[in-house]
Amino acid sequence: MDDMxxxxxxxxxxxxxxxxxxxxxxxxxxxxxxxxxxxAMDKRxxxxxxxxxxxxxxxAMDKRxxxxxxxxxxxxxxxxxxxxxxxxxxxxxxxxxxxxxxxxxxxxxxxxxxxxxxxxxxxxxTIKQNLAEMSQKLDDVIATQARHELAIQxxxxxxxxxxxxxxxxxxx
Length: 172
Hints:
By secondary structure, the protein is mainly alpha-helical.
């Protein structure tokens, strides 16, 4: 019977050593995530997934940047423009040499030239619009050509495979 009691006390002592205390449980509870914490993390992940950029977005941005780089003026362009621009002195000199209405009689050819110039200036907006449309069409043609090129390459590869198979069959 003493052995039995000793074994029971030993087992109880062993259980006490391994048993978690209230402090242990409180510490675990403080470190554990709650359902609210997980829901908040889930919302954050959804937000990140909705707002993050894809590789396609980055590729599109890269194309836009390339276009901007190709069309924007550089410092050298600005310096060149500044060098070609007229100064105030140049304008004063031109004004001094220009004829006034009083200096030039009413000439029909001048009126005709002014009207033709005005018509040409008015057509510039139409030309710009046509140019923009043609540029878009050109972009579409380039994209279509790229797709066709891939298809042609695929067909060429198939043709080579078939030629090799035919040669192999003839060689038998």
